[in-house]
Amino acid sequence: MTTATLRPYLSAVRSTLEVAVCLENFSSQVVERHNKPEVEVRSSKELLLQPMIISRNDKEKVLIEGSINSVCVRSTAALALFKSSSYPCTIKTHFI
């Protein structure tokens, strides 16, 4: 990996994550007294952020999906590392 391409890539991932991780408690608009991660249930389009793909090259990409109360980060590098294992290759962060 060359530093010339790695540094801007990591900087873009970092700044996007800083924005996406600004989470707050948000109860369901459908079911009273329920708090579910909107990035997974997708019950209200107005609560979802625009998904972003940050790509260094064809093999190194990060997909960041955010909502008002949750974030899902998928990385092609993580997919390659965990392809043969039973561990999930998605990092999910939920506001609790």
TrEMBL record:
<dbReference type="GO" id="GO:0034314">
    <property type="term" value="P:Arp2/3 complex-mediated actin nucleation"/>
</dbReference>
<dbReference type="InterPro" id="IPR008384">
    <property type="entry name" value="ARPC4"/>
</dbReference>
<dbReference type="Pfam" id="PF05856">
    <property type="entry name" value="ARPC4"/>
</dbReference>
<keyword id="KW-0963">Cytoplasm</keyword>
<dbReference type="InterPro" id="IPR034666">
    <property type="entry name" value="ARPC2/4"/>
</dbReference>
<protein>
    <submittedName>
        <fullName>Uncharacterized protein</fullName>
    </submittedName>
</protein>
<keyword id="KW-0009">Actin-binding</keyword>
<dbReference type="GO" id="GO:0030041">
    <property type="term" value="P:actin filament polymerization"/>
</dbReference>
<dbReference type="GO" id="GO:0005885">
    <property type="term" value="C:Arp2/3 protein complex"/>
</dbReference>
<dbReference type="GO" id="GO:0051015">
    <property type="term" value="F:actin filament binding"/>
</dbReference>
<comment type="similarity">
    <text>Belongs to the ARPC4 family.</text>
</comment>
<keyword id="KW-0206">Cytoskeleton</keyword>
